[in-house]
Amino acid sequence: MPTYSYCLVNVFAEDFFAGNQLAVFTNATGLDEATMQLLATQLNLSETTFVFPSQVASAKVKIFTPTNEMAFAGHPSLGTAVVIRDGRTEVSLELKAGIIPLRFNGDIATLTANPATHRAGPLASDLSQALGLPLSAFSEPAQFVDSGTEQLIVPLKTVDDVMACQPAAQFFRDVVLQGRNRDGTLVWAWQNGEIVARYFWTKHGQVMEDNGTGSACANLGAYLLKQGVQLPFAATMIQGHKVGRLAHLRLSITVDRQVEVGGRVVNIGRGEFDL
Predict the structure, then answer these.
(1) C-alpha triplet 98, 4, 67: angle, nearest 5°
(2) 14 included as an active-site residue
(3) pTM of the model
(4) Domains present along the chain, CATH in parentheses
(5) pLDDT tens per residue, range 179-216
(6) Active-site residues (predicted)?
(7) Residues 86-111: tens digit of each pLDDT
(8) Given 33, 47, 260, 272, which residue is catalytic?
């Protein structure tokens, strides 16, 4: 009976019980995709990762939510990198979306996102129904952005508008997901030089809220870059107000137009499955 061990970490965590949770199976050799999905469903965290040897990077990593596999996700990449770090200052991960380089500064891990693609998003009139907001809440046009996972980036005028979002499941699926394999939507606004954000996605037909979404932070960086933000750029994106668990994501864009997402990773425990 083989035993598979995992580490539990919190990513984007400024406190011990904060940030977004992650389980990392440090040696997944021998597990097939069906079993990995079952383990991710059993743990029921937003994501679980499985580490394999790689010929082209420090490790090959597969990322699963409780319902499906993902090509790229931010907090699983950062958390997995810290778990396999082993004293190194840099590592790279082979994901379905490509090779992701990461570096470390103390307990802060930072990834460099892949270049993004952009598509026009829905009209504000449609988003108003999908997000439960008045037309007056919308500022710049929304965009679909994909730096590994396509998501809808929706700028709002005020933090009050962000907090007032109440997505309606049917309109959300029709307007945001549009029957395609995209992940969800990030709504955000500026407050005193920081970005306050919420991220919505669907699970079993219901709209859910995530509390620390690194892939969406990377897509927001690509959105700001396309909008002509002054470089170099750095800001903190804070998520999780409405779910009672804050996450602090460090977003930066270098002068050579590379989008970076970082955060503090806290090791909180470990466990094992006898399969």
Answers:
(1) 55
(2) no
(3) 0.95
(4) 3-110+265-274 (3.10.310.10), 117-257 (3.10.310.10)
(5) 665 679 999 999 999 999 999 998 888 899 999 999 99
(6) 47
(7) 999 999 999 999 999 999 999 999 99
(8) 47
